[in-house]
Structures are given as structure tokens and as C-alpha cells.
Amino acid sequence: MDELSHLQNAAATFDEVLNYGKPSHPLNFPEPQFSVVSRVNASVHNPITNETAVVPNVFYEIRPDGLPPSRAYWVGRKLKKAIYGCVRSCTVLRV
Description:
Blueprint: H1 14-19, E1 37-46, E2 51-61, E3 71-82, E4 85-94
Antiparallel strand pairs: 1-2, 2-3, 3-4
């Protein structure tokens, strides 16, 4: 419980929760959009350091109109285990 002590509601008693009133509905999220992607090892350039490296686990969308994607995602380290897998950090790459 100590790692949650910075959260104001993490240590609230049941009576305190009741006094806050009725719960609100969760936020609405947009419907997910699915598309065909490709996972590759990609050559990535850092314009600040002027370095180029080949990195694994880069995902990009294969567009049905044949145009190149506007961005790709470099999947990084695991941040947290989850019930259905894990949460990973990703870096958005400009194509």
C-alpha cells in the first residue's frame, strides 16, 4: 500500500468514498481501428546526434492505397506485466 500512498483516493475509507456521491461513468474511448501491419528490423536515423542504427521490432501500417506510412512504432522495453500480456514503451518514428 505504501507505493500507492501518493494517490489521494488510495487510502480513502469506505465512508469517505460513500460521501463523495454517486460514481460517474467511465470516459468514452473511440472505437479501435485495425489494419494490416508489418514487423521489421529498420534502419533508424537520429537527426540530433546524426547517428543511424538498425533496430528490431519496428511496426508500420501497410496501407491499402500503396502510399508509405506516415509513422512507425519502435517497440521498446516492458514496463509492466498485465493480466493479458504486458505494457511496453514505444517510440513513434517519422517515416
